[in-house]
């Protein structure tokens, strides 16, 4: 066979191969998998279980969406908030993120232009008719809605071990004098009177807000955040003195424990009481502890210190469509009824079925309807994040040195720095 014939045959093979490739149908590109990234600090017990329940509801409706559970451990968002800020300022927002209703949301992200308004979603879902007026006001700014509240929490709850109390004939203290008398009895029995876990200093600020409300009552407490109540006044001094005394009855290792580890001391009967929000109820349920008792902390009967977890829509959310559907589920009756019994909170909506909730949460629902509602300091409802940070700094020093005069001066300065006090 000649060289020319060989080259002709090879050329024919190449042409035929090219024709086959050209005639092959163009493959349909595989669509990118839909995703939804939710940022929160819900990593323990009931809060993690509640979040997973919301994810489950979402995937029942949208099974083709991969949910990215972007959690950062640490109570009250103590570690999560700096991580979120780095992402938001760096142009890498999650699709939606947990944020406390009130100043934490508005001052940090809304007034600075990082969020989308949710007016259309509120209208579509009819939420103006099912969220209480007070809640609608707190999630509003400049005539627009900015986040969807998924729950209502109460910060002022005294939790105790009923078996320990019944065995010793003790009753929950209604006043600070009763608290200290009971603390002495517990101490004599070898029981730590007050369990505290402030590895995140927010827990001490939390305790302080409860003492403030119990010392001065709801109106003067609310006045602290508007400039009507003097931070240099006698009530604040009294609250600091009371806290200094209470700290003498706390577990010595409080700075090494988290809030839930402090609650474990109560569960084990090693500590008599802890003062913490009603997420303790969810922690107890998750740990199978059925002997938990609860009562208003000293001086706070008839006062409901409120906070709420909400979710909003950041500008530039990578999966905006999926984020809007997430918000829709967070605000729905089904979503709130599934989430809150596990989380240890009550619905932000006013139409949830109380029969779905446990004994403690039913009492919280009753109190929410009749008590004086005041905003939480430690959890972003009462003051801006920068103001809370400065108060946390004051508390960091105070739990160590218990210097009342120095702490009061620091609190007054923080109010001035926030532009609320003269």
Q: Could you characterize what this model shows?
A:
This protein is of the alpha/beta class and 422 residues long. Helices cover 49% and strands 14% of the residues. It has 17 helices and 14 strands. The strands form four sheets. A five-stranded mixed beta sheet has the order 2-1-3-13-6, with helices on both faces. Strands 9-10-8-11 form a four-stranded mixed beta sheet. Helix 2 (45-61) links the parallel strand 1 (34-40) and strand 2. Helix 9 (202-223) packs antiparallel against helix 10.
Helical residue percent? 40-55%
Distance between the termini: 105 Å
Top-tier CATH class of the largest domain:
Alpha Beta
Tell me what the CATH architecture of the largest domain is. 3-Layer(aba) Sandwich
Biggest sheet details: 5 strands, mixed
The CATH homologous superfamily of the largest domain is termed: Periplasmic binding protein-like II
Measured by DSSP, the beta-strand proportion falls in: 5-15%
Radius of gyration (Å): 27 Å
Average pLDDT metric: 92
Oligomerization: single chain
Spatial strand order of the main sheet: 2-1-3-13-6
**Regions with little confidence, pLDDT below 50 for 5+ residues:** 13-23
Q: How many separate structural domains? A: 2
Query: Helix- and strand-based class?
Result: alpha/beta
Structural descriptors:
single chain; 422 residues; alpha/beta; D-Maltodextrin-Binding Protein, domain 2; 2 domains; five-stranded mixed sheet; four-stranded mixed sheet; 17 helices; 14 strands; globular
